[in-house]
Amino acid sequence: MKRQLLLASCFISLAACSVTGHAEEPKMMRIANTTPEDRSLSQALYHFADRLEEETDGSIHVEVYTNSQIGGDRELFEGMQFNTIQAATMSTGPIAQFAPTFNVLELPFLFENESEAYELLDGPIGEELLFELEAQKVVGINYFENGFRVLTNNVKEIKELEDVKGLDLRTLENQWHMQIWSELGANPTPMNYSELYIGLEQGTIAGQENPIGNVVNSHFYEVQQYLTMTNHIYNASPFMVSKAFWEILTPQERQAIEEVADEVQASQRLANQEEARVSRAYLEEKGITITELTDKERERWIEASNPVRERFGNQEDHHGWVQRIEQALQADSQE
């Protein structure tokens, strides 16, 4: 009788494990980016991994791959489409190759500062843009931060628009980035980020433009002497999840991902701003010449790049987007 009771007790315990899910294998969530390991964007992914495993009691196991370990931006996005990668962050420029509406965020001098960008991206327009990703089999969660892009080169100090003329410059693989720099007088060359340092070192290109944190963490300062704080584009870095992976999650797991992503977004943005301040100080110590555009000169750059914004706005698929964003930013500034 005691043996029967013991066996019954064992079966009940096993059944309980099955009901609570502890006996099930955890769902594997591979997260990747192309960003250097030490940057705030990469550290945020590790923070996300720890917090999500904690919030889901281990029902989701997260592995993080930074610094282009498993491919460039295109490979990562396609990986999410095929669910070989379950989540990623990347700048909006590469995303626009798949969801062209995101090009609106690649237009020059759209935002004056981070606060303007947050107001727009965390509001209805930002949500609408994220929804565009679902047609590409990707679920947009929110926006992490890559930061304002600055210009570096190893030829000369760039103080005014004329100094850009003829500069061989690496850009993102994005047609609007290339058009911006063509209008400003440079010779833009698209290049994968993982190839950029070698391109600068070997002289294939003379300059590049990236958030200042990348200039430090990817050691571009070793092969560049001049940096100009152009702040010509603000780069958000959307946090995205494979739609195929999203669909196998429980409602509780989806909620956990959204809540943890929002928590990490807030801390990552603060960390990125601090990273930009520290990076500038570090580059000054290394002897890099850092130049600020005067207000008058900045207006000249804005005027010179305006044709790109006009061409974008004249495209049928993008009609109204520029106007909506400008109106939203104007309304926010008046509050």
UniProtKB/TrEMBL annotation:
InterPro entries: DctP_fam, TRAP_DctP, TRAP_DctP_sf. Residues 1-23 form the signal peptide. Keywords: Signal. One of its GO terms (molecular function) is carbohydrate binding. GO terms for cellular component: outer membrane-bounded periplasmic space. The keyword Magnesium does not apply. The lineage of its organism: Bacteria, Bacillati, Bacillota, Bacilli, Bacillales. One of its GO terms (biological process) is transmembrane transport. It holds the Pfam family DctP. The keyword Kinase does not apply. This is TRAP transporter substrate-binding protein.
